[in-house]
Amino acid sequence: MSKAAQSTASPRAHPYPTRSSSRLSASKPEPTAAPYAKERAVAIQAVIRASTLCQGVFKKLVSAETITKKDKSPVTVADFGAQAVVNNLIRAEFPEDPIVGEEDSKDLRENAETREKVVELANSVLDKPLSSDEILEAIDYGMYEGGPKGRFWTLDPIDGTKGFLRGEQFAVALALVEDGEVKVGVLGCPNLPQKLSDPEGPRGTIFVAVRGQGAFERSLDSELETKISVSPITNVSETSFCESVEAGHSSQGEAAQIAQLLGITRPSVRMDSQCKYGVLARGDADIYLRLPVSATYEEKIWDHAGGSIIIEEAGGKVCDIHGKPLDFSIGRTLRDNKGVIASNGSIHDAVMEAVQKVLQKSKEEKTV
Ligand SMILES: Nc1ncnc2c1ncn2[C@@H]1O[C@H](COP(=O)(O)O)[C@@H](O)[C@H]1OP(=O)(O)O
Ligand SMILES: [Mg+2]
């Protein structure tokens, strides 16, 4: 872990009006409020509610000996429930904004038992209970196609379903995209230690960023926000990098070669979900490598929109393996990009050079 991982920024008030309760209201932002103040506040509250819902299911899952890890139903129920909750709250406050969400209600419409569980779960965190039909409709409100013009939200109700089922990391990821650029990002990480150096300490954290306004972290149950920034480290051999737990999502072999080329000796931090972006943004790691395993896989916008703005606003850099910026303007996927490389910024060029060398070598080996 880098030196910055141990340092903690002092909590400071953020420049937005805070709400004294977690109830959502359609109140207008203060006339003096910063740009996107209402979007920021609503997104935080939506992510808190969805995270609370997921956390409840997750705690039961990790404590219940009766549920086998192969049983995917808990994560399915939480996934649909979280999407229904976030979509419902965003639509209530921003009725003009469409949503690009990961899930649709097709499977749920065919399974009455699961549907009833989703309805009960979603209503447990909503102020006004919704009917079964309203829940299905809220889920399908996430079917927008995205694109270059206007604004839309993008949501992964549970990013890292495999981490959720393993009792490890997962995230609720929400972002606002306007004219192709991510403007607001909120990541709820219900099981992430508030300090990576203290895995036994309190868990559950939220990362928030608005374009041009910095990145912040807060817990699920306190409004106090701490400004976060990436590590100041400049000596690449002293850095640590994070990557997926799932070898099928990112090439761990190539990551190890890149680390070796850069002289990195620390073991990689393997973690599921966009929690990796949060960990990098607060300086607990210095590099994030997502190296394509499949030549045809297209990354989804909901898997990177929230995380990428949080890194950028914390002072870091994000691009694909070719150095291209992630393009959120062409639909539901990042089809013009391959993989993701993120860093604290100061070591970015060195990392990119090593990435190019290793990927070029792999390419040559494959063609021999
Ligand atoms: N072949 C793949 N390459 C990269 N990411 C993938 C691949 N298959 C699935 N994913 C996505 O990786 C994300 C989790 O990433 P991580 O490994 O960082 O936790 C999930 O959203 C998952 O999408 P999906 O939920 O559609 O399967
Ligand atoms: Mg995902």
Automatic annotation (TrEMBL):
Keywords: Hydrolase, Magnesium, Metal-binding. It catalyses: 3'-phosphoadenylyl sulfate + H2O = adenosine 5'-phosphosulfate + phosphate; adenosine 3',5'-bisphosphate + H2O = AMP + phosphate; adenosine 2',5'-bisphosphate + H2O = AMP + phosphate. Mg(2+) binds at E102, D156, I158, D159, D303. One of its GO terms (biological process) is phosphatidylinositol phosphate biosynthetic process. Residues 1-36 are annotated as: Disordered. It holds the Pfam family Inositol_P. InterPro entries: DPNP, Inositol_monoP_metal-BS, Inositol_monoP_superfamily, Inositol_monophosphatase-like, Inositol_monophosphatase_CS. PANTHER family: 3'(2'),5'-BISPHOSPHATE NUCLEOTIDASE (PTHR43200:SF6), PHOSPHATASE (PTHR43200). Belongs to the inositol monophosphatase superfamily. This is 3'(2'),5'-bisphosphate nucleotidase. It comes from Rhizophlyctis rosea.
